[in-house]
Structure formats: C-alpha cells, structure tokens
TrEMBL record:
PANTHER family: DIHYDRO-HEME D1 DEHYDROGENASE, PROTEIN NIRF. InterPro entries: Haem_d1_sf, Host-pathogen_enzymatic-act, Lactonase_7-beta_prop, Lipoprotein_repeat, WD40/YVTN_repeat-like_dom_sf, YVTN_b-propeller_repeat. It comes from Peribacillus butanolivorans. This is Beta-propeller fold lactonase family protein.
C-alpha cells in the first residue's frame, strides 16, 4: 500500500509524509510521470542552479520559479535544449563522468536523471516533497539530498538509483550542501537557526554544529577541509569559519544580500555574489581583502561555477542567461543566453548626423553631456521629456562594443542603460523610427554615434 502511495499526486504525498518518509528507503527508480500541482510545494522559496559538464561543453541551468530547465552549448554560446515538465527545479549536478545530470524538484519530490547525449529522461527517483540542494560524494557513488520540508538529508545510492538512508536532525536544509574533498564529512546549511551541521559520512550522524550566521546562503569548503566560507545575506558579509573548532575567524564585508560564496580551484580567490547590487566581490583568500567588484550581472545568487583551470567563471543571471567571467581581468567576457530573449539594438544612418544608435524598434537613443559617469542628472520634468532607456540582454549594433553597455539604478529607482558610462535616453518629440528631433537640443543632447566617446 505504501509503495503505491509514492506515485500518487504530490499533495497527497505531502499530507501523508509522516507515514511515507521513513519508507523512502527502498523506493525504486521509476519513469512514471508524477503530476505537477497547480501551486508548487514551496514556491515562496526561490533559488537557481547552474551545473557545467566535466568537459565544459554544456551547462544546465534552472530557476525554481520556472517549470523548465535550459541546456546551453558552451562552445557555441547558444541554447541547445529546453526541458519542460518540472514543478520547482532546485539543483542540478552531473554524475557518472558527465554522462548524465540530475535535477532535484521540491514540488514533484523527485530526482530526475537525464542523458547528456540526447537529454532524454533515464530515471526518476522519489525522495519526497521538499527536495532541494544536492551534492555528490568524491567517488561518485552517493548523492546527498537536502529536504527542507522534512528537515532531513536523503542518502541515494547512484549505482542502484534508490534511497539507502535518511539522516534527520536538521532545520530547513535548503540549497546549501557540500561534501568535504576527502568524502568524510557533509556540510549542511540550516536556514532555520542559521547554522551549519557537520555530518560524519561513515556513521551518518551529526557530529557538530556551527552557528553565528545571519540568513545563511551559499557555502564553500577549502580543498584541505579546514575552512568553510558562508554568505550572510542578513548582514552583508562572508564568514570564514575554522571547521575544526567551529569558530568564525574572519568576517568579510561585501555588497548587499550576498548569496554565493564560491572558491576558485586553487583556493586563492572567493567569488561573493551580491543579489541586490548585481555584482560579484572578488576576495583574496590569503588576506580576506576584496580586491575587485565586478558589475553587470542580474540578481546573481549561489549559481557560480569555475572552469577546471580557474581562468573562467560562469555566473547564472535571473533571466537564466550565463555571464562568462575572465578571472584574470575580473571582467565579463560575454553573455550566453537564449537568442529569442535578446534585445537587438539598431544602427541607423542620416545625412545630417551620420551613423547613430537606436533601439530595436528604430527609435533614436541620446546622451546628455551634463550627466556624470554612470549617473543621470536628468530628473523630474527633464526625465518626462527625455525618458530613460533600459533593456536587458543587449545585442549591440555593429561598431558598438557590447561590453560597454551596463545598467544603473537611477535616483528614482528606475533602471537605465549606459554606454561607456553615459546614460541613454529617448526624446518625446521623436514620433517614429529614425526621427532625430533631439539632436543638438540646447547644445547638450546628442545622438549616440559609434565614434562619439573614442579617445
């Protein structure tokens, strides 16, 4: 009877979870379709995920607010596949040398196994509603699954594709879970109580708890297992913790609402992603100094992955695009995204002004000579005559450097696009595509020509 109950609707599973959870152990793999409830099991909790294949050829991304995951071809920088049918996809990991990837879903209460070759569903394992973060053991044989609804961690045998144990005693374990490099310990974040539980992998018992965090988010463990870094979105800092005694040995101030804390492969740098600032702070691990702040992201969270050589980092944005970062220059190299969602600027030409920039509808864009760098001084009535221009995922017109398009937050709270630090505007008297009625107004308003800001 209990076995049949695992395959009925998610809400019935949730209501009977007290009965079913102890019997998750022994649940078999299945390719049966589990219905998606109209409202997700825990949609008030938001997270995203990014996994890069071991050969760094593809990336799989998700956002718990979307009922699909996207697969990108990293070599071509294009969307390769959209996989639908999820409830609240939470975390993605590659297994078996990269031949498959696993997506946890808190609404469906399952782990879905997909072929990397053709992106078909290979297996589906029931672990109960609330399945969030996942982590693979170093030998690739075990998958640990946080379950925030049941305050537990499910231990899944990846060879047999079935749960083998359930570890209890946690308090809302969500996205954050890491396995030590030697595989001996599992570090589990507890959102409730702001603590990290350390589990002995051999005995599957909690042996220590580290507290003192504030709205803890992403965590990372150094390769020697001696230091844990945790993002505190509640106090805008990264905590560096000695894992042996559990003491916070350093508190590093970063931007607003840090979610991610990701170590480079050589453990020399830590990337802290600041969701509210749309930035990443680069921290020198040796002295815990912020050496650089990289801007140009869109609500970066925990989803940060470094390349094996450490030369690049992949950062997931709110719109499920991936910013590829040059770690040596601390700058965004390019944005990988679904071409259908890109905003394509136009380059127009007039006998009066020559070549100039327009939005994707052909409406002319202007700059204001009285603006400061990355600051708009056109406010109040001025902004009614010269409305700010803003677009995400810009494809620049020929002759304009796409890396120079950035986003600022105006004094009135609106977003505005800049080019080489100059805020861009429309003019209300331009009525149709190609109009340039704002050119030269008061000798301070001008169209944006491709050579205007060249030194």
């Amino acid at each position: 009877m209990l076995k049949k109950m695992k395959f009925i609707s998610v809400w019935i599973i949730a209501l009977l979870s007290v009965v079913i959870l102890p019997n998750v152990i022994g649940a078999s793999s299945t390719k049966s379709k589990i219905p998606v409830s109209e409202t997700g099991f825990d949609t008030n909790i938001t997270n995203n995920s990014l996994a890069v294949s071991p050969d760094e050829q593809i990336a799989v991304v998700s956002d718990s607010r979307e009922q699909s995951v996207l697969v990108y071809d990293l070599t071509k920088g294009k969307l390769r596949k959209k996989i639908d049918g999820f409830g609240s996809p939470r975390n993605i990991v590659f297994i078996d040398g990269g031949s498959e990837f696993v997506v946890s879903d808190s609404t469906l209460g399952t782990l879905r196994f997909y072929s990397t070759k053709n992106f078909t569903l290979k297996d589906e394992v029931v672990v109960g509603p609330g399945a969030f973060g996942t982590a693979v053991s170093p030998d690739g044989k075990i998958l640990y699954v946080n379950n925030q609804a049941h305050n537990s961690v499910t231990v899944v045998d990846l060879e047999k594709r079935k749960p083998m144990a359930v570890i209890t005693g946690f308090a809302q374990p969500r996205q954050g879970i890491k396995v030590s490099p030697d595989g001996k310990y599992i570090f589990v974040t507890n959102f409730q109580g702001d603590k990290v539980s350390i589990v002995d992998a051999a005995t599957q018992k909690i042996i220590r708890e580290i507290s003192g965090f504030s709205m803890i988010r992403g965590i990372s463990i150094t390769s020697d297992g001696g230091t844990l870094y945790a993002a505190n979105s509640g106090r805008n800092s990264i905590s560096a913790v000695d894992t042996l005694d559990g003491n916070i040995k350093s508190e590093i101030k970063v931007g607003r609402e840090p979610y991610g804390a990701s170590l480079s492969p050589d453990n020399k740098l830590l990337f802290a992603s600041n969701k509210a600032d749309n930035t990443i702070d680069v921290i020198n691990v040796a002295d815990h100094r912020v050496v650089k702040t990289i801007d140009g992201f869109n609500e970066p969270r925990q989803a940060i992955v470094f390349s094996h050589d450490g030369d690049r980092a992949y950062v997931l944005n709110r719109d499920l695009s991936i910013a590829r970062v040059n770690v040596k220059t601390f700058s965004i190299m390019d944005i990988i995204q679904d071409d259908s969602k890109k905003y394509k600027l136009k380059r127009l030409r007039s006998d009066k002004v020559g070549t100039y920039l327009a939005d994707q509808e052909g409406m002319t864009l202007y700059y204001f000579t009285k603006d400061d760098s990355s600051v708009s001084n056109c406010k109040g009535q001025c902004s009614e005559i010269w409305p700010p221009f803003h677009a995400d995922n810009i494809i620049s017109a020929k002759g304009f450097n796409k890396k120079e398009f950035k986003t600022i937050i105006r004094e009135d709270g609106q977003k505005q696009t800049t080019y080489k630090g100059h805020p861009l505007y429309y003019f209300v008297k331009d009525k149709q595509a190609g109009d340039i009625n704002g050119q030269g107004v008061n000798n301070v308003w001008f169209v944006l020509g491709k050579k205007v800001f060249e030194e």
